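In line with agreed milestones, the collection of sequences with tokenised folds has grown. A representative record is reproduced below.
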Amino acid sequence: MKNKVITYLLLAIVLIVWGIIFNKVFKVNNEELFVYSKTNVTKNSDTLIPIQKYQLKLNYTEPFLGTSNQVKKQITSKPKVLKLNTPFPIENFSYLGMIKNTRKKSTLAIVKWKGSEAYLAIGEKIDNIQVIKIDNSFVELRVDGVNYKVMK
């Protein structure tokens, strides 16, 4: 009987403590949390201010060496010329996977071409298709002097 009384007493104390904690956590005055303002914003195209351009000075001292680096005033980079790849000349070529021999340190690519599967090592050819590189997710091929990547 003594244990039940202590258990119920401790349970009541725990509930009171948690009640005080939840009361303090969730006691929020709604008026302080949300502030509403009724201002109407109108946009007039005549009153817009043009954007000003800023340039960074970057003449601060280097933190580790204590020296200042003078940066060129205009940093220009040449535009990169993008090489457009021609479409893959063999549409029904697919890369299925690879086989790796750890003893001989050789890899074979499993490819499907013209409805049949073939096992090709680096440097081997099927017609005018030569295998250049074999990876787990792709195989690199050379067709008529142009390299192509075929994904798995």
Remarks:
- The two ends are 73 Å apart (CA to CA).
- DSSP finds two helices and seven strands in the chain.
- The longest strand covers residues 94-101.
- Strands lie at 94-101, 106-113, 116-120, 125-126, 129-134, 138-143, 146-151.
